[in-house]
Each structure stands twice: as structure tokens, then as C-alpha cells.
Amino acid sequence: MIRYKVTLAYDGTLFSGFERQPDRRTIEGVLTQKVNIMAKNPDPAIVVYGSGRTDAGVHALGQVVHFDFPFDLPTKAIYRGLNSLLPLDMEIKKAEKVSDTFHARYDVSGKRYVYRLDLGEFKDPFKRNYTGNWRFPIDIERVQTAMKDFIGEHDFSSFVASGSTARSNIRTIYEATAYLDKEANEIRLEFYGNGFLYNMVRIMVGVVVEIGSQMRPEHDILRLYDVKDRDQARRTMPASGLYLKKVYYEGEDPQHPTKIPKHQR
Amino acid sequence: MIRYKVTLAYDGTLFSGFERQPDRRTIEGVLTQKVNIMAKNPDPAIVVYGSGRTDAGVHALGQVVHFDFPFDLPTKAIYRGLNSLLPLDMEIKKAEKVSDTFHARYDVSGKRYVYRLDLGEFKDPFKRNYTGNWRFPIDIERVQTAMKDFIGEHDFSSFVASGSTARSNIRTIYEATAYLDKEANEIRLEFYGNGFLYNMVRIMVGVVVEIGSQMRPEHDILRLYDVKDRDQARRTMPASGLYLKKVYYEGEDPQHPTKIPKHQR
Description:
The structure is a homodimer.
Chain A: E1 2-10, H1 27-38, E2 49-50, E3 59-69, H2 75-85, E4 90-98, E5 108-118, E6 132-133, H3 140-148, E7 152-155, E8 170-181, E9 186-193, H4 200-212, H5 220-227, E10 242-249
Parallel strand pairs in A: 3-10, 5-6
Antiparallel strand pairs in A: 1-3, 1-4, 2-3, 5-9, 5-10, 7-8, 8-9
Keywords (chains A, B): Isomerase, tRNA processing
Protein name (chains A, B): tRNA pseudouridine synthase A
Catalytic activity (chains A, B): uridine(38/39/40) in tRNA = pseudouridine(38/39/40) in tRNA
């Protein structure tokens, strides 16, 4: 068996999220089906392991999965073969051979997410599935100041949706930036950290836009760390604006090389 | 009755084109329904007149319609009211009051279309509904040279799909440009002329990409004008790449002020 690491992009609009579910169109479900077709449907079937889930409607520019394939094919054959079989809203970006100790989920050392926030009064018809929307006047400098409060190791208990199965809510954020694209009338928020809890980015964005629109004090994030109360963060921004941009593995980023300790995952 | 001129954008993906049809979701159908709801469903119903049709899957950044409304509302009320009623894949960009001699179709002096051509080996999942795709090596300078052959008054009989009801196939193209966006890995083709025949832009793009990829001689467009034979233009590029960008009315463009003569429409 040869282990392949595959990087893929998808438009999450028409998927019920990443995780396989009966009778639902999911990323894992479609990918598993196509990988098995390519391998002539072996028994037992090939299992596809993702770096983690994305919710319904969330997009990916660089999701990562691994699987063990029965034939030693060149990476180009995996790349082309899967792309030919996959539907148009999924695309393989890269296929690599990896050692059979590599694990797409357990070896993650970090993830990078982008959130696209459209500021139009009415939702642009070309952006409805690809951005979240915020109609209130917003001060980009206030947003940028607030984003800095995310950097570092914090207890994100106020920023996790119910249903999370994580052992710990402690996560470290390495980068958190906000950029106003005037031409597109959008704010792009980018987050890079060692791990993210269930709905965490969408809740973080909900808090920073409220700070940017004077609905919360400038450093309310510091207070939210203390209170550890999800109800005080209120807003979960729409899935349509969220993109999993990149998954980092042990050693890939020399500044932040190590994976998250198992007891925190 | 007050006549309003309304400029709108739409994502054509989920519409069966512009023209009203029973049991189909069309731009004209949805818009007519919402305008009549806003006017409290008068009898006879308000009729919406478009600048012309767009096909199923074709998008608009600046389609124009007019209608006569029973109440004298401020343009801002028309703008906001319609935007609140319309589905998320349509958006009113502008509402204006016009004289009751203005006609959205008969007073058109020109139209501007853009075609987005993705050059990726596999179709980008975020572009599948928003670009056409061309996988062959293509020389942008050859494309640009070919585009110049469109400029001027020509007989476009080789560039019209069967089913056209136009009285004449003579049209004048004022501008025809091609631009390679390396970062997006796309060619953007832009056409501005006094009128376009059925499927004409998509057929024109099919010919220039074949020229750009050495499948036709550099000035094959000149030969196609002469032969007046649609079969020789072959390819109609996908609707998903085409955008109606702007509709011009008499006098709006000082360089090309007059509308197309009625016998040519």
C-alpha cells in the first residue's frame, strides 16, 4: 500500500460539510467514493482521512487528506485521475507520496483560515455563497486592534459552539489580521493558529465585527477569555464566508513546527 | 404612471435565462412578480421591458429594464423595496425616473459584454459557474491581434446561432480587447458594439481562442465574414463565462451616440 497526501479545494455551497453521512453529499463521502473507483473498488474499501471537518457551506482552498492506495501510481496519475472523476465543485490541487507514518489529522501543526466579509448594503448576487455580510458602519482600525487580542495562547471557551468534543479549549493563535479591500468592498480576516474549535472562527469574526461597529468595547475579547461563557459571544457568522486556506504539518513552518499536544486536541 | 429605469445584476446560474416562460425561473419572471407585489398587484399587471434577453447561465453586471409604476415613489424606495423582495442572486444596482418615451429595448445604442476564460487544466471549483474554460496552450498576443479584426462594421452571419430573429446580421463593434490576468490564470475578453446577435459573443470567443491556440490562421475572422457560414465557426463557448456588463442608451456615449437602425435590429 502506498500512502498519498492530497491537497484539495472545494466550493462548500452544495455539500453537507466534510464528514461522511448516509444519504448526504459530503466532501469525505464523494472523495472516498472516487478514490475507491480509481482503485477498482477494493475490499475492504479505502478509507480517506481528513485534517479535520469543515461545516456545511464552508469552503476550502487547501484541505488535506491521506489514504492508502493499493497501486504505486505516480503522483501525477493520482492528481489527474481523481480530478477527472470528481465533480466540478471539488479540485485536487496536489498529490504527494508520504511515509506510512504520516497522518492527515494527527500530524497537523496548524491551520490557516480566511473569512471574507462583504460590506454591501445588499448582498452582491455573485458573493452570496462566498462571503458573509455585514451592513453596519465598521471601523477597520478598530477591527485591526481587536484582532491583535487573539494572538497568543488563550482559553477560547467563550468562542466554541456547543457540540464541541475537544478535550481542552486552550489554543494558540500565531497570526490574526484584517485587511480592507476597498475595491471589493470587503474585509478579509485571516487567522493562523495551532488549532481551532467547533465554529471558533465564525464566532471570533462575529465578535470583532461587533467591536468594529462600536457594539462592544475595543478590548472585549480579553473580557470574553475571562468569563468563559459562549452566550456572551452571541453571533456565529455565516459559513459562506469561511475558507480553510492551508493546513500545516509538523516541521513545515519553522517558526511553529510542533503539533498540538494530544490532550488538547 | 411613473416610468422607472432600473439597472440590475444577476448570477445567471440558477435562471432559465431572461425571458419569461411558464413554470421556469427567469429574470423577467421574478422581476415582474416582485414589481407587481410592490405595487400591490394592480390589474392589469405591470409589464417589465428588458434591454434584451440573456441566455440560461449568462450573468449580468448591468442589465437594464423599464416599467411603469402606479405610484410616484422616490428612486431610493424603488431601489430598497425591490432589493428587499428579490432573491439573493439578483440585485438592483440603480433606479432612475425617466420620461415616458424612454424604452429599455428600443433606445439601446450599444452593449458591452465581458467573457471570463479560465485557463486551468481542471476547472477551479469556485469558477465553474463564473467562467468558461480553455485547456489548450494559448498565445495572448495572437488573441489580441485576432480581436482587432472584430472592430468595425461587419456581416456577422458566420457568428450567429440558428434561431436568431434579427432582420440583419450587420453589426458594428467599437471595441474588442483581450487581457491576460496572470494571477487569476484567466483571459478577459471585452466587446462593445451597437448590438449583438443570438449567441454572437460566445461564438466570437470560440473563434478567437482557436486562433490563439493555433487551430486557425491569425486572420481567419476576415475569411469568416466572407463565407457567411455558421458551421465554420463551430464552437459556442459556455454561457457561464459571459457577463452583460453595460447597456448604453442614445446619447450616453458621446463617441457612439445613436441607436441601431430599426431595420437592422
